[in-house]
Amino acid sequence: MTAGPLPHRVIQVGLSGEAVERYVEEWIVRISDVTDLAQAVHRDVGAGRLGEAASRLPQEVPYPLPEEIRERIGGTATNGEFPAGP
Fold first, then answer.
1. What is the mean pLDDT of the chain?
2. Taking a C-beta distance cutoff of 8 angstroms, is the pair 78, 10 a contact?
3. Measuring CA to CA, how many Å separate 51 from each of 4, 10, 47, 80?
4. A Pfam family in this protein (predicted)?
């Protein structure tokens, strides 16, 4: 909520070739205008209401990563939750 460092790392995966076409043509099921939501979250954060701001957002969960890949990329095991923040 405060744009500080997170206690976990993330990975961004790029798409190319057929995956881009399929993403655009098949995998997108809805596009929603979230301007009002973003403004409400911004107001809450600005007023110090971090809990209220967080409650407006979807809960993020770690992607289940197979052990072989986790070891290869140096990931850490989780219990399905992100590590606690600072």
1. 86
2. no
3. 16, 23, 11, 21
4. DUF4291
